[in-house]
Amino acid sequence: MKTNPSQWVVFKRLLSYLKPYKWLTLLALGLLLSTSVIKSLIPLIASHFIDSYMTDFGHAALMLLIGYYGMYILQTLVQYFGNFFFARVSYSVVRDIRRDAFANMERLGMSYFDKTPAGSIVSRITNDTESISEMFSGILSSFISAIFIFTVTLYTMLTLDARLTGLVAIFLPFIFIFVNIYRKKSTAVIAKTRSLLSDINTKLSESIEGIRIIQAFNQEDRLKDEFDAINEEHLHFANQSMRIDSIFLRPAMSLLKLLAYAVLMAYFGFSWQKIGISAGIMYAFIQYVNRLFDPLIEVTQNFSTLQTSMVSAGRVFALIDEDGYEPLQDNSGAVIEQGDIEFKHVSFSYDGVNPILDDISFSVKKGETIAFVGSTGSGKSSIINVFMRFYEFQSGQVLLDGRDIRTYSQDQLRQNIGLVLQDPFLYHGTIASNIKMYQELTDEEVKAAAEFVDADQFIQKLPNGYDEPVTERGSTFSTGQRQLLAFARTVASQPKILILDEATANIDSETEGIVQHSLAKMRQGRTTIAIAHRLSTIQDANCIYVLDKGRIIESGSHDELLALGGTYHKMYQLQAGMMEN
């Protein structure tokens, strides 16, 4: 049976995951082969019983009958253990594939996540790997078992009567023709069905994550219509796949089996006296036709699932092979001592065509704070993305303590750079585990970090204190409380450099005073880069840079920029007017 070359490559790669479990796999294969042999012996025993003991039932016939049913029991036991060991191998392989997919996903850079919906990634690591599990645990074992049974049965039939075997063999080419037609017609349909299932997961994920906005803007009906459209299209292709299955799989195979029965019975009816075929041999051949066609019917019945598994495996391997990693570091062993930062004529583009940062130069030393302001799309967050090594810049230099930032390992950078985002992310767990972030910290160190950023005040009022459960994204806490916990997490890691990406943009005025006081303490003795929306929060910065279309158009202290009367002055007046109103 020929397969599409790409599918064959995928299949061989799947088989490579069996190497760590080769002995268990061989044991399972041995048991399946034993099952095939036992199945082929049962009709022979029945044939011998019919021809020799039907009219003379005695002790020998009783022993043969006991042996006949004993073979059925033995077949059941051997088949059970064969399937059991195959299932163990299957789940182990899927665990390994899922682990590889997740491990590679964790290494990918921000550019991959910018262009790939989260729901699609979730679908590959969950639904698609589950489909692979079905292939290994059920389909692959049935395929191998079918090959064994087919081979052993065909050999046994030939030894019994070559003429009858030749009559049955006439129908075998038609089986492979039907399977080949099915493969050609079903591959594209199955691939589209899996793709639409991924789209459903993506739409579902987006709807759950954005449910507040959806409800706030009364967009439930629109999202429902979009979901229904994708769901209906998925149903259309699923039905189309089912129609192909219903024509080319079990009905076609069953028809061929009935025709084989008819030919055998007709041949036996017209020729048994001439050719001397016994009733026992005829009974055995009827059973062997079942054993010849039934595994082929099962294989073709599972072929659609196999096709789905191949498509799913291809999608998972595409994730495993994705190489859009973070920019490489030299890992020279350099250690960040002070945290002095300098950008020298840095230019950057996300797509390599449209410039986002154009000839950016600035410097900031330990204990100093600089801030970037500007309209949306001016390049503020891109400076952070470049410095955090989420993206590679195209030209210029980024220096850290006078050394090229590329000479520091990723671990060194992550340990010494504390990032606080506009929307703080909290994990399932407790307040303590979110502050620790799986670092080796004592309870006293966790409490000290919370006290330092003034988060201890509200934590102590909670029913369980530091053991208070944190739900998904910390939804039970206010924005200010979540931000204070993010501050505590950052302080606990003792970074030398602090990056604040609009850390106070979503804070209410009541909490802003506490947050600002915490920020002031966090910035002491640290190199700080702040991206600010509220100009009132950065007035004490050593230098403020105004960005426009990726270029620095103004720089200076708050008072110097106001005296300049330029863009910053207009922005400040606009915000001051809004606050007065």
TrEMBL record:
Residues 26-308 form the ABC transmembrane type-1 domain. Residues 341-574 form the ABC transporter domain. The keyword Translocase does not apply. Its main location: membrane. It is a multi-pass membrane protein. The keyword Iron does not apply. GO terms for molecular function: ATP binding. InterPro entries: AAA+_ATPase, ABC1_TM_dom, ABC1_TM_sf, ABC_transporter-like_ATP-bd, P-loop_NTPase, Type_1_exporter. Signal peptide: none annotated. It is found in: Cell membrane. The chain crosses the membrane at residues 21-45, 57-78, 139-158, 164-182, 258-286. Pfam families: ABC_membrane (PF00664), ABC_tran (PF00005). It comes from the Bacteria. Keywords: ATP-binding, Membrane, Nucleotide-binding, Transmembrane, Transmembrane helix. This is ABC transporter ATP-binding protein. It comes from Streptococcus caprae.
